[in-house]
């Protein structure tokens, strides 16, 4: 019995039968305020990690451990399939949550879960505790329905504790434990779908490079009448750099920036265009009056599949009331770049360095400070493991599954890089879930379909997931 309506019904029945107990367990975990950004909550974050470890052990994982980092701990669990040739899959998620306070606009206590109209409200309900826990219900359904004593794949879970604080120790953690994390495929469960009515699977995330450029001209602010127009002005040069960032078609004008960019295929463009995208509604969420971006691409293509450059901040010189006729001594520019598959973080950083050096005149000293960098990741539509995710979702949702990408950036690419495995996304959250916002919730119907998807996925991957 595998890919049949009987199996689908049996999985659904198992998930339904265990729904109440599952929600009680999830609620218990949600009551732990594991806010990684708040030092006063450090013990709660550790408590949340211990809760998860114990829950995974109780689910049947023979290995369930806390992995310490210099910051918050991660949780690792492993359940070998028993078949030496089985595919190995690593599930990624996080057990920490964003800060939340009644005063931010919560209608109920963010750490006292409330179920109302088919939704569960609590900080972390969708991001990410609900989406982590759906896997334990899923795996129990997988075992119950197939009669197996161990999953069809070698299953590993890595649930980190610092995602909401920028995952500062995650790359190092993954490198240090690369042998135990070794896998054929990574499943990230920390993303969402298009909407309640349009289930989708995400196929990639953009990367990120961001930096600050400090410009210095005269050793101090000087008189603009005595010296202005005859010496370089760092504020003018900051503005010239910002203005030179894009050409007339709004393409990024930094030489070499687009080197290696994986272009959208016609098929991907068609699939994006089929999504029920309401541009006016999207503009409202953007609090903007018009769209603007690289010529020749739709809005979805611009935010999902094209690299971009953004001025995040620009400043320098006199900012006080009235006028002050000076040539300022310093100015500053903050830039960020979203990268797509094929772009290399180091190459982009060095292209920016060369571009800045080439544009600045003599007499302006500059310093570029790069903040963190995140690599892009992308799984091709025809990848067999991606097809397994799509089939598993189709069986759970009873609907055609469409494809999206994620314009933002996340630690998924660290796993892709360190483990050399493709990254797939299994997320059931929807935009209305209110990630990082007051009254975060998860749709219980979607959460249960997520558990069904997870239940179908392991057998399908075991059979079809190898490249
Ligand atoms: Zn998250």
What does this molecule look like?
- This protein is of the alpha+beta class and 467 residues long.
- It folds into two domains: 5-205 and 376-464, Aminopeptidase; 207-261 and 307-370, Alpha-Beta Plaits.
- Helix content is 35%, strand content 21%.
- Strands 1-2-6-3-7-17 form a six-stranded mixed β-sheet, with helices on both faces. A four-stranded antiparallel β-sheet has the order 11-13-9-14, with helices on one face.
- Helix 5 (170-176) runs parallel beside helix 13.
- The longest helix has 21 residues, at 444-464.
- Zinc ion (ZN) binds next to loops.
- Residues 94, 127-128, 163, 190 line the site of zinc ion.
At the first level of CATH, what is the class of the largest domain?
Alpha Beta
Question: In which range does the helix fraction lie?
Answer: 25-40%
Cofactors, ions and other ligands in the entry: zinc ion
The CATH architecture designation of the largest domain is 3-Layer(aba) Sandwich
What's the helix count? 14
> What's the pLDDT, averaged over the residues?
95
Give the end-to-end Cα distance, rounded to a whole number of Å. 24 Å
As for the number of domains, it is: 2
Radius of gyration in whole Å, from Cα? 25 Å
- Full CATH superfamily name of the largest domain: Zn peptidases
Shape: elongated
Category by helix and strand content: alpha+beta
Largest sheet: 6 strands, mixed
Poorly predicted runs of 5 or more residues: none
How would you write the strand order of the largest sheet? 1-2-6-3-7-17
Give the tally of β-strands. 18
Task: State which percent range the strand residues make up.
Answer: 15-25%
**CATH topology call of the largest domain:** Aminopeptidase
């Amino acid at each position: 019995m595998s890919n049949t309506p009987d199996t689908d019904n049996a999985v659904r029945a198992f998930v339904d039968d265990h729904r109440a107990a599952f929600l009680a367990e999830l609620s218990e975990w949600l009551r732990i305020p594991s806010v990684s950004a708040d030092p006063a909550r450090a013990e709660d974050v550790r408590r949340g990690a211990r809760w998860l470890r114990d829950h995974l052990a109780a689910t049947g994982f023979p290995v369930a451990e806390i992995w310490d980092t210099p910051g918050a701990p991660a949780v690792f669990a492993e359940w070998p399939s028993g078949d030496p040739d089985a595919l190995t899959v690593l599930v990624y998620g996080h057990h920490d949550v964003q800060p939340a306070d009644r005063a931010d606009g919560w209608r109920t206590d963010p750490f006292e879960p409330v179920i109302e109209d088919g939704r569960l409200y609590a900080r972390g309900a969708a991001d990410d505790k609900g989406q982590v826990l759906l896997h334990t219900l899923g795996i129990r359904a997988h075992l119950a329905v197939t009669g197996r004593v161990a999953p069809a794949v070698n299953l590993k879970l890595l649930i980190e504790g610092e995602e909401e604080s920028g995952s500062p120790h995650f790359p190092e953690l993954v490198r240090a434990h690369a042998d135990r994390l070794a896998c054929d495929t990574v499943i990230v469960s920390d993303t969402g779908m298009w909407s309640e009515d349009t289930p989708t699977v995400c196929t990639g995330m953009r990367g990120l490079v961001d930096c600050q450029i400090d410009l210095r001209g005269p050793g101090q602010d000087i008189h603009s009448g005595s010296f202005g127009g005859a010496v370089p002005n760092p504020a003018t040069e900051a503005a010239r750099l910002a203005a030179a960032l894009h050409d007339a078609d709004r393409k990024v004008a930094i030489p070499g920036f687009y080197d290696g960019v994986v272009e959208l295929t016609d098929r991907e463009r068609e699939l994006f265009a089929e999504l029920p995208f309401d541009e006016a509604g999207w503009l409202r969420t953007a609090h903007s009056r018009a769209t603007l971006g690289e010529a020749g691409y739709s809005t979805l293509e611009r935010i999902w599949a094209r690299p971009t450059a953004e001025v995040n901040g620009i400043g320098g010189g006199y900012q006080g009331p009235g006028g002050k006729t000076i040539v300022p001594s310093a100015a500053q520019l903050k830039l960020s770049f979203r990268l797509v598959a094929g772009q290399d973080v180091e190459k982009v950083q060095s292209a920016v360095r060369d571009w800045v050096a080439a544009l600045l005149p003599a007499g302006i000293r500059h310093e570029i400070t790069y903040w963190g960098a995140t690599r892009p990741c992308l799984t091709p539509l025809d990848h067999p493991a991606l097809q397994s995710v799509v089939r598993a979702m189709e069986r759970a949702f009873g609907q055609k599954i469409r494809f999206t990408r994620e314009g933002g950036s996340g630690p998924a690419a660290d796993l892709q890089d360190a483990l050399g495995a493709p990254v797939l996304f299994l997320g059931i959250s929807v935009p209305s879930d209110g990630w990082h916002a007051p009254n975060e919730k998860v749709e219980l119907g979607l959460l249960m379909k997520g558990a069904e998807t997870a239940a179908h996925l392991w057998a399908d991957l075991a059979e079809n997931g190898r490249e």
